[in-house]
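Bumping with the actual sequence this time:
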Amino acid sequence: MQRRTFLKSGALAVSAAATPAALEAATSGKSGKQPNIVFIMADDLGYADLGCYGSRSIKTPAIDALARAGVKLTDGYSNSAVCSSTRVGLVTGRYQYRLPCGLAEPLISDDLGLPEDEDTLPKSLQKLGYRTVLVGKWHIGGGKKYNPLRAGYDHFFGITGGGGDYFAHTLRLGPIVAGGLVEGETQVERQGYLTDLIGDRAVQEVRDARAENKPLYMSVHFTAPHSPWEGPEDEELAKTVGNSFHTDGGNLETYGKMVESMDQNIAKIVEELKALGMIDNTIIIFTSDNGGERFSDVWPFTGAKTELLEGGIRVPIIASWPGHIPAGSETSQMMISMDFVPTLLRAAGVKKIEPGRFDGEDLLDVLTGKAEPHSRKLYWRYKAVDQAAIRDGDWKYLRMGEREFLFNLAEDAHERANKIRLEPERYAAMKADWQAWNDTMLPYKETTPSHGIADFLADRYAPDHEGGLKLPSF
């Protein structure tokens, strides 16, 4: 599984699209100019919710075009099975469990957030002369103390919390209404569908960067397709939604419209980059903050958001960079959210990443076809249902409560064949490896918030259910 790379284009396409001259320039952009970086992230998107990843009903032509223009990763992962934890790993390049704000699953208090003195990707890019922008969802702390401007962004427009109604732009929990749109550090009012507002603002930021004649680093963090389940034409329906988690609504059709609206707004951003002559010197990344939620398609995996099964942490990752990343390529290189920090820093011109600075890896050479994919280890944990996971090459150890599993993902992507009895030494070694890693991370506290999808979905069992067939554990 780890040796499968660039299957669509093959070695000839690698040599044709990524010439030695192009690869030598890969750290400084075309013609010696630093590349623009547009990082696009969906919220709760399922692995198979895109056409290029096998969607059976949702149309995503803009995202599919990015995959054709660059590389599609089959083994992409999020740092966590829930949003705010992943975002901590994404901005710091480290396991989120090293920071108090990264333990929350998700972050629900404005009294906790990303420390202002924390090293971040936008801070590093600011020092390299970049105009740094965040448009969309932040969710690593609220109020002025934890505002994105304190984390290295020159400009911010979006929401600071975990979600928002697509028309009212606030978080609603019955009689409680919180959040809302923020520009810089100021609460603002805007009319319109939130996905469109994020897309339109991103287009404007591209224009502003062009006018300023500075390289652009722009994170576009859509809230789609996170609940509430409201499509672009559902403004009247939205007035009746009493809870932003919307457990009493939604369907596959509405969910599809939400994803397709996001795709249409991505198309606007790409078209603006083309119109301004910026596309050839722009890295575009697309991914999701965690696996899919209740209406998502995660095939061929099982599990969902808040679970360490593959469906909760395996995410699409697409990267394009004309002249550097071979068009139409595919790789099985394992990549996780925190890898983007060292990878993008080197693409922006950093010649050497200090050892130990990040937990994430610099994978630029793999993405550009300069290096073969390699095996590595990735670790996760999740407080709800006491979950633990490690992936080492093709093998995965998983604990969910008192149940333990060992899977060979190369043979069993669906995570059904438990190999513990057949591979006792591997099981023991991987379990011990996870524990040794976990001992280096901050512990959860009794008060650390966490939740599981089993709390409200009929196709999940609560962890304390009684009855059923009792089988011996191996």
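The tokens above came from a reply further down the thread. The chain has 13 helices and 18 strands.
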